[in-house]
Amino acid sequence: MSSRLRGALALALFAAGGPLAAQGVGSAFTHQGRLADAGSPANGPYDFRCILYDAPAGGSQVGPIVSVDDVAVAEGLFTIALDFGALAFRGNARFLEVAVRPGASTGAYTVIGGRQELRPAPTAIFSGSAAEVGWTGVSGKPAGFADNVDNDSGGTVTSVATGAGLTGGPISGSGTVAVAIGGIVSNMIANGAVGASQIDPTQVQARIGGTCPLGSYLRGINPDGSVVCTGLPNAHTITTVYDPSTHEAGQDVAIAIAPDGLPVVSHYGTINSGALHVTKCANAACSAGNTTRIPDDSSQNDVGRYSSIAIGSDGFPVVSYHDATLGTLKVLKCSTPTCSGGTIIATVDDHPVNTVGAYTSIAIGTDGFPVISYYDSTAGGLKVAKCVNVNCTGLNVITTVDNPPGDVGRETSIGIGTDGLPVISYRDATAGGLKVAKCNSAACNTGATITGVASVGANSRMTVPADGRPVITYELQASMNSAIRVLKCGNAACNAGNVDNEVYFASGVGGARSSIAIGADGFPILSHWAPALGIIKCGHAACNAGNAGTILDSPASAGVGTFNAIAVGPDGLPVVAYHDSTNNSLKVAKCGNAACN
Fold first, then answer.
1. 298-341: pLDDT as tens digits
2. In this structure, which topology does domain 6-133 adopt according to CATH?
3. Based on C-alpha coordinates, what's the Rg of the chain?
4. Which of 344, 353, 492, 543 has the fewest CB within 10 Å, making it most exposed?
5. CA–CA separation, 138 vs 158, rounded Å?
6. DSSP state, residue 572
7. What 3-state class would DSSP assign to 538?
8. What are the Cα distances from residue 152, in Å, to 106, 162, 256?
9. What local confidence, expressed as pLDDT, does residue 278 receive?
């Protein structure tokens, strides 16, 4: 280019390529000017090089160098589009330097004039005043401004004060707000905001969530607040409760705990032809002041065998038993805790042909009326009698529950499930097995689910713990030399998931006639004949771990425990009623701790 090349540049103009509401203006702008060559208006193609600075002289380059080649210049006028990027214009002054050369040249550029300051164009003025005119027509609006309204109140924070529990204020410039030492007090914490999930149990002990039953002591506290209890190492109390000089007593024994927390025992004695006896203990150990009544002692009939006792809904004893002479099922309802007077004796089932009422077992239904399982000796079947009142004196509901070909229904034991329906364990004498009948109704008169739970099984006794799954103790054979087993049902009907374990057998001695209760820890405890009186405390709900056995009473005669029954008092300590066959008497053992060890 000739050294005479000179240019006169017009003000730079910013312009959008379309309506503002349709699209953004972008970062490019249009630059127009007039170019003279040798004093005359230039014509033809020219190359332009444009550089942006932050000062009219010196300073620093802003953005890239923008080169536009072969721009058509006519009569000295030209128009070029420049784009130095979105960050080139941030509200600070900018100065443009323009240099040119002929379009066909590859030589050096000639700077035209000095740097020119770029002034705001109308669009830029609009953008800068957007806060004043609102957000209408502005693209790329921040979240919250889609309605074209700036809801900012326009207020200004001039200082920050600190309230209760905080420190660091007031702050008018910069500073730190923090929790003051000792600043958090109890009324700042909402109820329930701090619980077990917020506590580190390795540093903070959870609230104690249990107590130890009477007869045991607190040995420790678990991290979750539950307690560890151990039975007090007290001595066991063994008492001859009833020792008549004229006859034998204490056979076919059964035990219950009356509302006063004291044991009451039903048993069979040989006075006259045979009579029903009821003994009410005067203290938890039956060690003194006991009262024995003989409420049914017919001189002609043999009554009182296979006795079973429960506490009626009125708090007084109710006993089921067999009249062996008449072959009937009878029920005694006491009207006092000691059965001392006003007793009612009802014949519940008096079959015109069959002998019924052996192997009785009684429970109180959810309606407060007794329900009794027993054996039909003639038909060889299992029967259930549902009483229609507390005395069993009305038109009771009698049902044969199981009577297949063969002999079933011996050695029955009944309980009430957590669903309110009876469940019964009994022996299949023909097959030699143990069966369970789960009734479909409170009277067991609408069918039952009958399941064979063991291929062999005699002398079963059952209880229903809090989980609703019965637990049954039985022997492998009906003899005095057999293994004792415990079957824990897998469900309420014992027809799936059962767990069966042997818990006692001594070669040449064995065990027999076991009885079962649930201890204060929720695990079973058994009494049995071994041939002395033995105790087995289970260490698990299914008696498949941690079992411990002990001999509770073993006199020189070894004639104790052939008939036995166990219960757990409100003090958490087991109490056992049993027969002393050597002395023909009734004995009671009160354990000194929960495991009777």
1. 767 999 999 999 999 999 999 999 999 999 999 999 999 999 98
2. Immunoglobulin-like (2.60.40)
3. 50
4. 353
5. 31
6. S
7. coil
8. 57, 24, 80
9. 98
The pLDDT tens digits of the residues spanning 160-210 come to: 888 888 888 788 888 888 888 888 888 888 888 877 777 787 777 777 888
Half-sphere exposure of 17 (CA within 13 A, CB side): 8
CA distance 446 to 453: 22
CB-based contact 212:232 (threshold 8 Å): no
- Beta strands per DSSP E along 232-339: 237-242, 251-257, 263-269, 275-280, 291-296, 303-311, 317-323, 328-333
248, 259, 330, 243: which is closest to 292 by C-alpha?
243
Q: Which residue type sits at 402?
A: D
pLDDT confidence bin for 114, thresholds 50/70/90? confident
**Alpha carbons 94 and 31: distance in angstroms, whole number:** 14
Structure tokens at 582: 């050597």
Structure token digits, residue 307: 């006795």
Answer yes or no: is pLDDT of 4 > 70.
no
Region class of 248: left (phi > 0), else alpha (psi between -120 and 50), else beta: beta
| Whether 50 contacts 29, CB under 8 Å | no
Rounded Cα distance, 399 and 332, in Å:
20
pLDDT digit string (tens) for 67-80? 999 999 999 999 99
Contacts of 271 (CB under 8 A, 6+ apart): 244, 246, 247, 249, 294, 297
Architecture per CATH, 237-590? 6 Propeller (2.120)
Query: The tokens of 244 are what?
Result: 């008549």
Q: What is the pLDDT of residue 233?
A: 67
> Rounded to an integer, what distance in angstroms lies between the CA atom of residue 73 and that of residue 27?
25
Burial of 583 by CB count in 10 Å (0-12 exposed, 13-18 middle, 19+ buried)?
middle
Structure tokens at 183: 């600043």
Judge contact between 312 and 333, C-beta under 8 A: yes
- Is residue 111 packed enough to be buried (19+ CB in 10 Å), middle (13-18) or exposed (0-12)? middle
Indicate if 237-590 has the same CATH topology as 6-133: no
Q: What pLDDT is stored for residue 13 in this prediction?
A: 36
For the chain, domain boundaries: 6-133, 237-590
Residues 381/408, Cβ–Cβ less than 8 Å: yes
Residue 15: the pLDDT is 35
> What's the full length of the chain, in residues?
597
What is the band of 361 on the pLDDT scale with cuts at 50, 70, 90?
very high
